[in-house]
TrEMBL record:
Gene Ontology biological process terms in this record: cell wall organization; cellulose biosynthetic process
Protein name: Cellulose synthase A catalytic subunit 7
Lineage start: Eukaryota, Viridiplantae, Streptophyta, Embryophyta, Tracheophyta
Name of a matching Pfam family: Cellulose_synt
Alphabetic keyword roster: Cell wall biogenesis/degradation, Glycosyltransferase, Membrane, Transferase, Transmembrane, Transmembrane helix
Predominant location: membrane
Species the sequence originates in: Trifolium medium
Length: 125
């Protein structure tokens, strides 16, 4: 197990898959493990922030899934893509934030983002 990392579980599974270990999904009828979950928005946002920081920690470390494990060659292409996706997902917040802010800016400034498309649609209508 990789200790000292915020995302120790992801880093451990990346190392195990790179070394050739296989993982399976186990769904027992009776709960095998019990854990806690965030019960309010503040705790949930803190949890998501920890996950994002942990993902970026892995992305910018020597264990980056882009190049980690090429010597061993045991990480399959789809596994590599899945690990890359899980480490770069915090960057999806940037375009999402912009996408959410632009309509408010357009309403406040009374300007459209794409006026040429709007005028074209008016002529068609």
């Amino acid at each position: 197990m990789s200790y000292g990392s915020i995302a120790a579980d992801t880093l451990t599974s990346l190392k195990m898959h790179t070394r050739g270990w296989r993982s399976v999904y186990c769904m027992p009828k009776r709960a095998a493990f019990r854990g806690t979950a965030p019960i309010n928005l503040t705790e949930r946002l803190n949890q998501v922030l920890r996950w994002a920081v942990g993902s970026l920690e892995i992305l910018f470390s020597r264990h980056c899934p882009l190049w980690y494990g090429f010597k061993e060659g045991r990480l399959k292409v789809l596994q590599r893509i899945a690990y890359i996706n899980s480490t770069v997902y915090p960057f999806s917040a940037l375009p999402l934030t912009i996408y959410c802010i632009i309509p408010a800016i357009c309403l406040l400034t009374d300007k459209f983002i794409t006026p040429s498309v709007i005028h074209f649609l008016i002529f068609i209508y």
